[in-house]
Write a structure and sequence with these properties.
The protein is mostly beta strands. It has a single domain (about 5-25, about 40-50, about 70-160), classed as Immunoglobulin-like (Sandwich), CATH 2.60.40. It is about 5% helix and about 40% strand. It is built from one helix and nine strands, in the order αβββββββββ. The strands form two sheets. Strands 2-8-7-4-5 form a five-stranded antiparallel beta sheet, with no helix packed on it. The longest helix is centred in the first third of the chain and has 11 residues, at about 5-15. The radius of gyration is 16 Å and the shape is globular.
Length: about 160
């Protein structure tokens, strides 16, 4: 299970992600081509029917489970994922007035504030991102994704979340 790491990573990847802003945004939700180091993908919110089971969330629990611990990343003695010991950066860019829960490969990874940004790292290779903004009123929840991407080692994947 991959989790977002600390604030230090946020600063480092926001700097790297700024390179992505110079590139044109694309509506295509596929992997970058060989040699691409950054990709920006726009995703627009949608709704799900009331009471429908959400297949994009495996675990929404924010509490630690002592019997199911997250394995360490390669730079902290863990096994590698993808081609070699290299990681991939994820930058979530929220262009909405809502707080959005972020899930990486179906597991809760954190919440991005309204109009905010959050960054983290995952292993290189395929990953799935999913976001959901929950409302306490009679409005339906808004969803983004699932977006499947193949993140090459050392690159940054920017996922821009837009209003419907």
């Amino acid at each position: 299970m991959k989790k977002f790491r600390g604030i230090g990573v946020l600063v480092a990847f926001l700097a790297m992600a700024s390179l992505a802003f110079g590139q044109a945004a694309t509506e295509k939700k596929t992997a970058p081509g060989p040699g691409d180091k950054a990709q920006v993908v726009n995703d627009t919110a949608k709704t799900r029917g009331a009471g429908a089971v959400n297949p994009n969330i495996k675990s929404a629990d924010t509490k630690n489970n002592s019997k199911q611990q997250t394995p360490p990343p390669p730079n902290k003695g863990g096994a590698t994922r993808g081609a070699g010991p290299y990681e991939c950066g994820i930058h979530v860019d929220n262009h909405t007035p809502w707080r959005i829960e972020i899930y990486v490969d179906g597991n809760y990874a954190g919440t991005v504030n309204s109009w905010g940004d959050v960054a983290g790292i995952t292993g290189n290779g395929p990953s799935t991102l999913y976001g959901i903004a929950r409302f306490s009123s009679d409005l339906p929840d808004l969803e983004w994704g699932p977006t499947v991407f193949n993140c090459p080692a050392g690159s940054v994947y920017t996922w821009r979340l837009n209003r419907p």
